[in-house]
Structure formats: structure tokens, C-alpha cells
Amino acid sequence: MKQISQYLEDKNFVDWIFNPTPELENWWELFEIKNPKEKQNIQLARNILQKFNTNEQQLSQDDKLKMFAQILKQVEAKAQRTKRIQPILMLARYAAVAILFFSLGVVIFYKQNSLNHQFYSESFAEPAANNNAQLIRSDGENVIIEEEKSTIEYKSDGQLIVNNNVLETKSPGTKTKNALNQLIIPHGKMTTLILPDGTKVTLNAGSKLVYPDHFSKAKREVFLIGEAFFDVFEDQKHPFVVQTTDINIEVLGTKFNLSAYAGENIYETVLAEGKVRIRQNQSSLFDETIDLEPNQKATFNRTLRETKVKDVDVENYILWQEGIFKFDSSDLNRVTKKLERFYNIQIKYDDVMLGTLKISGKLDLQDNREKVLQRIATAASVKIKRKGENYYEISN
To answer: What is the mean pLDDT of the chain?
Structure first.
């Protein structure tokens, strides 16, 4: 069963509530028929949204990204507690999030009036079935990317190239100030994105990057959920900032890896070249600043709100771009999470304590996944059994 937060974050759902069309009405009617257990959650989410009206406000790109981070963080925190909350209390909690959402006058995903409703009815009909990467352009156009590894490049003249295919360039008159794009990479896929300033971003499986059509004059700012390796083009006058729900990383020109998956308690920043500055978000204020040197890793604990820095072998954290996992005394559950994303599979533990076992090694993920899982089992002295087409269980 879905949580209410997933509906509040779904612009398809939000647009259905505020600007219903026949296509959207038909899509959600069919969705409710196919998912009868979701009717209560849908109604609660609808009640929350209908209590508020939005007013158009001109927000800067920086404000949008900061607001996006704060809202996502609060929705996520409440979603983790919903299993222990009665429906009426659940409604009250999400109403509080909605008040914040709409008092600011904007829904981040639902950020424009001119949205492509055909995109909703076709692309979101069965989102789990195709498991394709998606580039949602700032005007609402949805570009489906089927390849396991893909490349997206923005040329300085405004041209957009996806896997050597030139997409239609939007005329200047159709661009919205501070318009944002979303690049969504599902499990089992990987994408390299070259931004207009020349910065190269390699996105790992299960990641999302939110970025503008054009960077502002003050900063080059993006928002990341998941993992990415950044090779930032140096520009002394325009710092490059990567925001997450809890921290942001500011650089001028450098190479670093950032792992910031929404479902994980640990965020890791590993610096390969140059220098980065890490700030912790605290109600839009920063109460901690840490500068990293090459070959250092900053580990941020989201529960304790603490950051620890230590020297590391950078290769262990960046070889995933080449389909290789290298790990040194890592928890088994962290290794299996990476494998889940790479192979688009599920791995469960018969005993959760098995996930704390420490293992070391190097895996070539281009090999048959059964062989890779067997190597993991040997290294950790456990058994890994296949329970379904994409489902495995680990036991003693």
C-alpha cells in the first residue's frame, strides 16, 4: 500500500486535484479500480490538497530548490511513522505538511500552468512496467530513455542531445524563468548528463536530479536524490551547489561522489579532486561547515545530525561508474543495497543482524548476477537463495 506522501509528491495526482481533465479523471478512475486498497489514502490526500489554494508567486531557482529539499525532508520523516498512526492522526500530520506546502504558494513538482496532460495519461499509466529512465523537461514533456546506459548533453547553443538524437530545441519565448527539469533514473539503469556549463554528472541507479534550463547569475544549483559523480566545470564567479534534503555541497571546480538516497540514514561525500565545502541544512540556516580535501570522505548521519571525516581510497566509491563495486570492511546490507539498485532486484534477510557483517572485495557487475551473488555469499559466509524472478533471501 502506498503512503499519502507519495500522492502529495506526485504531480500527476496534484494536477488531477487542481486542474482535472477528462484524461486525468479516466486515469485515476482506472487506478482506483485496479488498486481498491488505495481508496482511503487517495481520499485522505485529496482532502488535504482541497483544503488549500495556491497563489502564483515568482520564486527564484534557489528558493525553489531549498523549498523542495525542506518539503521532501518533512514528508519523508512523517511517512516513516504512518504505520503507527491512526487515519485521523495521519490526516492531521499530513495537513501540517500541506500547510507548509501551500502557504509558500507553490507545489515544487507542480510548478507550471502549461503542463502536458497527455504526458500524464500515457507515461504514468504503468510506471513500474517499463522501468525506463525519464527526462521530464521544464515544459512538462516526458522523454523516455530505454537504454541501460544513456548520455544526455545540453549544448551551449541550447541544443539537447539524448543518445546521439537531437531533440527539438525550445524557442526562447517558451522558456519559463527558473524552469526546472527532472532526470529520473530507475533501478538497473545509469545515465551521464552534461549540463550547459560543461559540468558532467553520472547518475547511479535509483537516483533523481532536478536542475534548471539555465543557471542563475549567482550560482549553479541542482538538487540530488540518490547517488552521482560530479565532474564540475570550474567557474570562479559562479559556485556549483548540489543540494540534498539535509546537506549541500558547494564547489568551484572539482570531482566528487555524493550518495544521498532518501531511504538511507547515511549520506556520503567523497572527494577525488579539488575542494568541496559541506553545509548542514537547519531550517534554511547553516550551522556547520566542513571543507574536504582530496581522498577524504564526509559521512553525515541524518539521525544524529553529525558529520565525520576520514581518509579513504577514493576508488572504492567511484568505480560503480564502470560497473565495478569495490568495498573494504563494509556492512553487508550496504553492499546488497547497491546490488539491488544495479540489478533491479530485491534482497531480504532471514536475520536482520546478518546485514551488519563486514565484508571486503571487488565485484565486476558485468558478470552473471547469480555468480556475483554467490561471491558475496562466500565472502560473508552466508547463503543466498533465489525465491523468485527478482527476489533473493540471505540466511545463515
So the answer is: 78
